[in-house]
Amino acid sequence: MAFYDRGKESRKKSNFYGSKDKDDKFFNSRRLPIILTKPDSERDKDKDKGSKSRSSTQDSSEKSVPSQPTILLKTREGDGRALSPSQKTARQKKDVEPTYQLATKTSNTDTTSSLLPLPEMKQSIKLIDENCQFCGDGLLEYLSEQTDFLVIGCIGPQSAGKSTIMSHLTSTTPTNWNIFKPQTIEQEEVGLHGTNGVDVFVTSNRVILLDTQPILSPSVLDKLIQQDNKKSLGNPGPPNHNAFSSMNDRSATPTTEFGTVENAVEINSLQITGFLLSVCHTVICIQDWFFDPNVFRFLQSAEMLKPATTTLQDDVMVEYFPQVVFLQNKARVSDFNQENISTMQDVINQTFLRSRLQIQSGVGIATGNVIKHLNPMTCGDPINLYLLPNFYNEENPNHFKNNTGFADLMLQFKRQLLGITKHPLTHTALTEKNWFHYASKVWDGIKKSPFYSEYSRLLP
Questions:
Q1: How far from 172 is each of 149, 179, 333, 410, CA to CA, in Å?
Q2: Residue 309, Cβ neighbours under 10 Å: how many?
Q3: Which of 69, 158, 300, 402 lies in disulfide reach of 214, CB 3.0 to 4.6 Å?
Q4: Where are the beta strands (DSSP E) in 320-408?
Q5: Which residues are CB-neighbours of 130 under 8 A, at least 6 positions away?
Q6: Residue 12 to residues 1, 8, 24, 25: CA-CA distances in angstroms?
Q7: What is the pTM of this model?
Q8: Which stretches does the entry tag as region Disordered (predicted)?
């Protein structure tokens, strides 16, 4: 029995230790939560630090001035939230107001600039100088942005009265009759011309007047010879005031890019005339005799060589040609005869029968509105032919039959010019400033055109 009891006790012990090992293994396999805590000494130190920092921030906040808090809000753009009518109107006003304010500011400045009055011209200025350079930059301040303006130019031989006639067109008051400086008595005695290049003047009723140097002038020829002689010699001598002295010395005549100086003078005159035929609504051909074959041949050559500029007429693109008025200045009493007027008109009609220049525009002495006995019934179909007596030699204002003399004839002529039907210069409407830039381009094209150099080869 003792052996049995001893074995039983051994089994109990083995079971006891075996179960204990199992519990230890199970207890070790479980992961229990880990709690991290600081020791009591460190926690006391942190409390002391926190109390000190709070006391320092309170002191600093007491010393500093309190400021308002800044609130950042993000706008909700693109969300599909519904808005109330008041919110919609507020948002629309917010989007529209800045654009409306900018537009109002710009329009106010434009209106203010457009209401500024243009300065009034007192004297003519240069548009093309004697060296054939376009130099009319000072003209822009006298030009506006309107399209209702008229351009009138004149051509003619030397001492025909071009500058005097153009000065009378500027105004009817005697104080403005010398706006374009005429040829002085001293210049006329030695055979010198008065105008060099092209002069321009703008009237108060928006008429742009162009006065030019004489065409086919011996004075211009003499001046060109003297300039070339000075360049070749390098030592300019005393000026020669006799326009015909150097012309007699044919050995001193130099050559230019257009051949001889005679050809250069004619080509220069053709270029200026072609310029007027391109940029003017009306061109006045002023002579002191009703028929000069050299002037008429010259005008036909200028028409042939002018640059081709297009305009819109009856919705069709056509080449532009201006109105041409033939003015006989310094006319005698016998020139106002019905038979003489009829003969003058027939000669001009036959000469320009194939020309595209417009010579029937309602400006003439034989329309019946100037002198009663000079009408289409007695003189034939009227053309652009007008006569003026000599202004300086007119002693009796009533020495012409059925008219009051130069003053009345000049006033009627001016009214006819201002009432003429003008055609657009280009296919688009030009303002006064646009006309200035257009004239500059036309002159540059004429200077570079090969037609004039080719034409100079055909000249003798």
A1: 19, 12, 24, 9
A2: 17
A3: 158
A4: 323-331, 385-389
A5: 196, 197, 213
A6: 17, 6, 18, 20
A7: 0.70
A8: 1-115, 229-255
Question: 313 pairs with which residues across the strands?
Answer: 316
Distances (CA, A) of 295 to 57, 251, 393: 105, 28, 25
Residues 6+ apart with CB under 8 A from 220: 193, 213, 214, 265, 268, 269
CA-based nearest residue to 321, from 384, 272, 279, 363? 279
d(CA 390, CA 387): 10
Exposed (0-12), middle (13-18) or buried (19+): which is 442, by Cβ within 10 Å?
A: buried
Give the pLDDT of residue 444. 94
Rounded CA-CA distance 348/411 in Å is 24
DSSP SS3 for 313: strand
pLDDT band at 295 (very low <50, low <70, confident <90, very high): very high
Looking at this protein, which amino acid is placed at residue 275?
F
DSSP 391: S
Alpha-carbon 283 to chain mean position: 22
User: What are the angstrom distances between the C-alpha of 329 and each of 53, 188, 310, 336, 386?
Assistant: 110, 17, 33, 12, 9
Give the single-character DSSP code of 316: E
Cα atoms found within 13 Å of the Cα of residue 163, Cβ hemisphere only = 21
pLDDT digits (tens, 9 = 90+) for 261-279: 888 999 999 999 999 999 9
